[in-house]
Amino acid sequence: MTLEIWLGYVATVLVLMSTPGPSQILMLSNSMSNGFGRSIATAAGDLTANILQMLAAGLGLAVLITSSETVFLTVKWVGVAYLVYMGVTKLRMAKAKVGIAGTRPRKSLGKLWLDGFITSATNPKAVIFFASLFPLFIDSGQPVAPQLFILGATYIAMDGLFLTFYGKSAEWVARKVSQSGYRLVERISASAMIGAAVLLGLKDVR
User: How far apart are CA 196 and CA 84, in angstroms?
Assistant: First the structure.
């Protein structure tokens, strides 16, 4: 892969990532509620799902998803339902009393990882996205596997940087909020989560 092609790919991904999606909104929410350090588990879950989606695209599973509307819609609405569930849970937490030590309830690292993984994995269009994006930057006259690795690794690195930015920004905001503002933070976080569900739900089927 030439440097020119790789830079073109980087520029394309930057444009595509310029608008936050459900995973980025989830990162914002979990970082505000749990701190950036713990929310790294959410980013790890998201990136794990991305890697699996890239492998699925490489193996041609995008054809299976696009050929079966039932499979596509099932996966999609599972993700929507999960995001709504997390949003409602946060709203309930916002109504709960804060502990006497002033600490905020936190999710386990496993739950944070699962949040990120499910939110990303239940977006079936991601497989189609990778399956349609990668061929644009692959030279069929060269070995394909190394090129796929470079494209995949670049995407994961860039996505990780974006998630880090969103997470650190959210943590900074949360630190500026007093304990009395905890319920407001949770309500904002919950609204963002439900908003992410709406975004996923409104995505075109094809």
Answer: 9
How far is the CA of 95 from the CAs of 40, 48, 103, 182, 188, in angstroms? Answer: 26, 33, 15, 10, 13
Token pair 């995973």 is found at 23
Q: How far apart are CA 39 and CA 41, in angstroms?
A: 5
pTM: 0.69
Own/partner contacts of 125-128, CB < 8 Å, gap of 24 or more, are: 125/76, 125/203, 126/49, 126/50, 126/53, 127/53, 127/56, 127/57, 127/61, 127/62, 127/65, 128/57, 128/62, 128/65, 128/66
Angle, helix 22-34 to helix 109-121, in steps of 10 degrees:
170
- Round the average pLDDT of the chain to a whole number and report it: 75
The pLDDT value given to residue 64: 58
